[in-house]
């Protein structure tokens, strides 16, 4: 998502992989195996020049920027890294950022599902630039301590975060497992202090179970992140639940900050028949539309849970399901990230993540800064949010959003059961 996470959340694996947030690979014909510091600066400039979504480069004279930075002398890679960060900052894009080799390695490690840190997803607030928690990772030190979405990190080990960018924050917060970091959090008007012990965190892309209800057995699936293994795990979950003859599904995307675009597309194909999923538009207004792969794994009624921590890849999936009429969305408005990033490795082991396109839902909705409004809006109190995050009271009677999802799912199941005898209308038409 925007955001850079501790342990660099969304990710890349191949030489030019797209994140979702991402979409298309970037050519790298000018790169050399071991570029000099000046060549490294020029390499980044070229990548941005050819692929960045805003052709005005934030109203910058981009050729003059190149002349400025290539006219400097660089005696070390560290000087080049600082220059690149300055150059990138001119774009004014919180999603475009430079990763030094160590940070890029962490980015690659994360997508495999093995993380190390406190388990926070951060974003810089669009207006205030405050470091804001998008979501804590399940069963992480941050979640166990009770840090919540929308909390603002005001201090790290006593140092104010005012004016601090996400990269600097990441460097200070992440560290070896077993070491500690102290975060000062602003929640509303209340200042809170959390002393967190860093840990190794294993992401479980998909968890699932069944529940017996008045309208039959239903399947509950929780997807915390769109990792490389998430599609395989999702497929296994659906197949297993189909074998148990569930009558419908609740798919929980709450506090899912996104991940790989490819994972989002594959998972969408498991729920929908041949239909559009998302359209990407680059700075040349070239439109690329992605559709499902073919036959879905199930056509049974579906309710999707979303909230303010559901972002990027989550919004692509939720938006497609809502536009298609395939699912009813329950919860609160999603994060609102309608931009696509790609990650380009550089010749010295560092990488540049840049915004390459905007995306639109199948019906042409631009959800950037707006988010997706659920069909059924159900909010939570701070105490309920804390219970969900800290005590894992998810998909229980203590979870009002899940309880509402069950009611909606029951109505869908009953409508589907009645539809063949009444009108023969498929459930998709009923759900629009």
Describe the structure.
The two termini are 28 Å apart. The chain has 432 residues and is α+β, with helices and mostly antiparallel strands. The N terminus and C terminus are likely disordered. Among the domains are: 89 residues, PDZ domain (Pdz3 Domain, Roll), CATH 2.30.42.10; 205 residues, 2-enoyl-CoA Hydratase, Chain A, domain 1. Helices cover 31% and strands 24% of the residues.
Q: List the uncertain runs.
A: 1-32, 421-432
- Please state the oligomeric state of the protein chains shown: single chain
Write the CATH architecture name of the domain at 207-338 and 359-431. Answer: Alpha-Beta Complex
- What does the largest sheet look like? 6 strands, antiparallel
CATH topology type of the domain at 207-338 and 359-431: 2-enoyl-CoA Hydratase, Chain A, domain 1
User: How confident is the prediction overall: mean pLDDT?
Assistant: 85
Q: Give the DSSP E fraction (strand runs of 2 or more residues).
A: 15-25%
Distance between the termini: 28 Å
Query: CATH top level of the domain at 207-338 and 359-431?
Result: Alpha Beta
Helical element count? Answer: 12
Structural class: alpha+beta
Rg, rounded, reads 22 Å
What is the percent of helical residues? 25-40%
Outline:
The protein has 432 residues and is of the alpha+beta class.
What brief labels describe this structure?
432 residues; globular; Pdz3 Domain; 2-enoyl-CoA Hydratase, Chain A, domain 1; 6-stranded antiparallel sheet; alpha+beta; 12 helices
């Amino acid at each position: 998502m925007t955001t850079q996470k501790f342990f660099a959340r969304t990710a890349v694996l191949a030489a030019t992989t797209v994140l979702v947030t991402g979409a298309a690979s970037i050519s790298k014909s000018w790169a050399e195996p071991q570029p000099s510091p000046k060549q490294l600066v020029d390499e980044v400039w070229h990548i941005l020049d050819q692929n960045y979504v805003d052709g005005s480069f934030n109203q910058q004279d981009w050729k003059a920027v190149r002349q400025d930075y290539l006219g400097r002398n660089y005696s070390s890679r560290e000087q080049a890294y600082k220059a690149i960060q300055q150059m990138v900052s001119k774009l004014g894009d919180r999603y475009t950022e430079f990763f030094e080799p160590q940070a890029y390695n962490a980015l690659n490690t994360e997508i495999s599902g093995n993380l190390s840190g406190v388990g926070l997803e951060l974003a810089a607030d669009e207006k205030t630039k405050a470091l804001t928690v998008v979501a804590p990772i399940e069963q992480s030190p941050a979640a166990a301590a009770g840090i919540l979405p929308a909390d603002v990190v005001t201090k790290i080990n006593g140092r104010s975060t005012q004016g601090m960018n996400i990269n600097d924050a990441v460097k200070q917060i992440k560290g070896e497992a077993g070491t500690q970091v102290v975060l000062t959090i602003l929640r509303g008007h209340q200042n809170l202090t959390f002393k967190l012990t860093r840990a190794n965190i294993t992401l479980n892309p998909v968890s699932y179970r069944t529940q017996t209800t008045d309208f039959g057995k239903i399947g509950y699936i929780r997807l915390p992140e769109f990792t490389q293994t998430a599609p395989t795990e999702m497929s296994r979950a659906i197949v297993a639940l189909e074998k148990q003859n569930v009558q419908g599904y609740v798919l929980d995307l709450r506090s899912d900050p996104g991940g790989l675009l490819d994972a989002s597309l594959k998972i969408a194909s498991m729920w929908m028949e041949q239909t559009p999923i998302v359209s990407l538009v680059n700075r040349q207004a070239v439109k690329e539309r992605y559709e499902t792969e073919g036959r879905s794994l199930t056509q049974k009624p579906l309710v999707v849970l979303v909230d303010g921590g559901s972002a990027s890849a989550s919004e692509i999936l939720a938006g497609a399901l809502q536009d298609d009429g395939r699912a009813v969305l329950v919860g609160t408005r999603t994060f609102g990230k309608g931009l696509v990033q790609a990650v380009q490795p550089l010749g010295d082991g560092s990488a540049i993540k840049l915004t390459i396109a905007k995306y639109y839902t199948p019906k042409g909705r631009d959800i950037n800064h707006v988010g997706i409004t659920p069909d059924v809006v159900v909010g939570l109190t701070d105490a309920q949010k804390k219970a969900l995050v800290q005590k894992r009271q998810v998909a229980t009677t203590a979870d009002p959003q899940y309880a509402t999802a069950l009611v909606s799912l029951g109505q869908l199941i009953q409508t589907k059961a009645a539809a063949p005898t009444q009108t023969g209308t498929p459930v998709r038409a009923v759900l629009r």
